Every structure is written in C-alpha cells, then in structure tokens.
Amino acid sequence: IAAATVVPFDGEGALGDGRPLALLANVGGAADAVNAAAAHADGVGLFRTEFCFLDRVDAPSVEEQVAAYRGVLAAFPGRKVVVRTLDAGSDKPLPFANADHEGNPALGVRGLRIARRTPALLDDQLRALAQATEAESAQVEVMAPMVATVEEARDFADRARAAGLSRVGIMIETPSAALLAAELFEIVDFVSLGTNDLAQYTLAADRLLSELGDLNDPWQPAVLRLIGMVGEAGRAAGKAVGVCGEAGGDPALAPVLIGLGVTSLSMTPRSLGRVAAAVAEVTEDDCRRAAHAVLATGTAAEARAAASAVLPGRG
Ligand code: PEP
Ligand code: MG
C-alpha cells in the first residue's frame, strides 16, 4: 500500500489470530481528539498537553487547563486517554516553563525536569487533570515525559497519586529509562515508548536534523534492543508497554514491536488503517519470530530485511 494512501479503519484492531490490539491516537487538543474519534481510534495513547499552550507567555490557570483537558476527554467517553504532562523544552519551548537560553536544549531542563525548578507547575497540572477526570467518563492515565531515573519516576508517581490520579506511567525516551525498565515497573502502572526521543538519545543524533535521518531511525538495532528490554520487563511485571513515537504508525514495524512485547500502538489517526491492515496479516507467533530476527541484526537495513523475510507476504 502506498505510503500516502489513507486506509479506512473500522475500529477493530486485532492480529490475524484474533488477539485484540489497541490502536490509539496521538492528539494535541480537542479538535485533534474529535478527528481521532471520527477515525475510530480506540482511545488516545498520547495527548501532548504542551500543544494546548504553545502561544502562552504566562502559565495557564488550573481552570483553563481543566477546560482544555475536558475537551479531549469528552471525545472519548469510557475510553482510555493517556495524558502526558507538559513536555516543554528542546524542540517545544514554552516561555512560562523554560529558561531563555540553554547550550544544549535537548539535553537540558525539558519535560519532567522542569519540575525540579518549578514543582508547582506540575502539581497544578496534575490537579487540573484530576478535576477534568472527575468531570468526564474517559479512563484517564497520566504519564511524564523525559524520565531518566528511578527517583524521577518515584517523585512523579507520588505527586500524581497525591493529586488523586490512579493510573500513573512514564515515557521511556532515554536509554537510561530503558535500561532501568524493571526497576521503573516497580513504581509505575505502565510505560509508553517515545521512540522519537529514544532514537535521538540512543544514537546521539538531533531529531530535527534531516541530515541525520538515517540515525534517527527506530529500525536501528540499538533502539530495537532497548525496546526489547522494555518489552521483556513489561511481560515479567505483567504491565502495559505502549509505543507513541512515530514508530507506532509504521505498518512494517508494528509486528516487530508486538513481538518485542509492546501491547498497544499510538499514532497519527491517518495511520490507523494501514497499521490495522498490517497487524491483521500476522499472528502472535509471526511477531515473535520477526522480533527474534531483528534482534540478531547489526544494521537498520538488515533489521528491515530480516523482518520482511520472516513476515507473511513480505519476503
Ligand atoms: C517521542 O519522543 O517519541 C514522543 C512521542 O514524544 P514527542 O515526539 O512529543 O517528543
Ligand atoms: Mg518525546
């Protein structure tokens, strides 16, 4: 299927052997959420809350935040909505959250790290999200971006639970978090792999430089091995492992991710149909064989070829 073609999605994500697979949407606000619901997404796997406040000079009030979050939750009554706390900084600086200048913003005070400087910003957001959750029927889960250590995860989980939020997770976007997955699963209820940043930080290549696109590639074996470690830890802990980076919308990669232990995929809504079609062609066994094959490769090209050779209809 040509990459530009939008394949319709009927809302039923499942493998060829019938195992259901949640296919979720990435959204940045209420309008996106309405579109995602119309595209039959099962729920939201990534709500990028910073997108609601990109034009703000001052921090939004709790009331303004409640309204913004309710707009997204209302589009998915009774469904899962994973809300990410502000991922300000680096490629998405917010004037009210970030310092004026940093030498290496991708390695600076971004995402959860902002709470070191201004914990009230995070606590207000969690309070607003708890209020929005009470007012709507969506099954809200909250997660933090840019976590690198066990202490950060513990601090975030404590704050989120103290605010009254019951399902708490973190994004796995740093090699450190992937390597510590087993310890992190002792603290959180779920994780979501942010493969865009995980590739950026694993290959040490700025994700904004198209010149380095070959390095910022989730098929890089180092990235796949880290994903596999997280998948293993998730299986052992009996906890959910999502993918919400661009990799989640790659139909060729989806069976590999499932084989590596990923339990849900979140993507831009226009990718839902193509990913659903790709996973409907494979069994859980196919996925495991594809994962096994890519883990034995040393280059991204070899990983792609190894998956194609194993999966039905692609070899
Ligand atoms: C990611 O890093 O893969 C991700 C989903 O987060 P963002 O693209 O918003 O940094
Ligand atoms: Mg990210």
From TrEMBL:
Recorded coiled-coil stretches: none
Main localization, broad class: cytoplasm
Annotated keywords: Cytoplasm, Kinase, Magnesium, Metal-binding, Phosphotransferase system, Sugar transport, Transferase, Transport
GO terms, biological process: phosphoenolpyruvate-dependent sugar phosphotransferase system
Compartments where found: Cytoplasm
Record GO terms (molecular function): kinase activity; metal ion binding; phosphoenolpyruvate-protein phosphotransferase activity
GO cellular component, one term: cytoplasm
Keyword Magnesium: yes
Domain of life assignment: Bacteria
Family to which this protein belongs: Belongs to the PEP-utilizing enzyme family.
Function comment: General (non sugar-specific) component of the phosphoenolpyruvate-dependent sugar phosphotransferase system (sugar PTS). This major carbohydrate active-transport system catalyzes the phosphorylation of incoming sugar substrates concomitantly with their translocation across the cell membrane. Enzyme I transfers the phosphoryl group from phosphoenolpyruvate (PEP) to the phosphoryl carrier protein (HPr). General (non sugar-specific) component of the phosphoenolpyruvate-dependent sugar phosphotransferase system (sugar PTS). This major carbohydrate active-transport system catalyzes the phosphorylation of incoming sugar substrates concomitantly with their translocation across the cell membrane. The phosphoryl group from phosphoenolpyruvate (PEP) is transferred to the phosphoryl carrier protein HPr by enzyme I. Phospho-HPr then transfers it to the PTS EIIA domain.
Protein name, per record: Phosphocarrier protein HPr
Organism: Microbacterium saperdae
Lineage start: Bacteria, Bacillati, Actinomycetota, Actinomycetes, Micrococcales
